[in-house]
User: Which sequence fits this backbone?
């Protein structure tokens, strides 16, 4: 069975990267969405307090889908993603 990540890669042609250059780290100023599997791993690893229920509306705004998608993603902190703010980027990589 195809995972959410595999489906995203197939549909978008984009692949995950593990680059830590300045430009890639700058993207962490806005929390990424993560796949359902990513979020589940974070929950199982005890990071519930760093996640929040949200609503994704980009697809609706762009006319791609007719509804807002409820989801869970990393919390936004003053400096960006909660995992960047707490210098715990390695946490994500280790899960």
Assistant:
């Amino acid at each position: 069975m195809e995972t959410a990540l595999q489906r995203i890669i197939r549909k978008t042609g984009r692949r995950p990267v593990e680059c830590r250059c300045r430009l890639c780290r700058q993207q962490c100023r806005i929390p990424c969405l993560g796949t359902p599997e990513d979020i589940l791993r974070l929950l199982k690893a005890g990071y519930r307090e760093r996640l929040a229920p949200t609503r994704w509306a980009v697809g609706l705004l762009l006319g791609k889908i007719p509804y807002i998608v409820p989801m869970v993603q990393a919390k936004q902190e003053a400096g960006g993603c909660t995992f960047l703010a707490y210098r715990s980027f390695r946490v994500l990589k280790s899960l």
The beta strands are 51-56, 69-74, 76-77, 80-81. The longest strand covers residues 51-56.
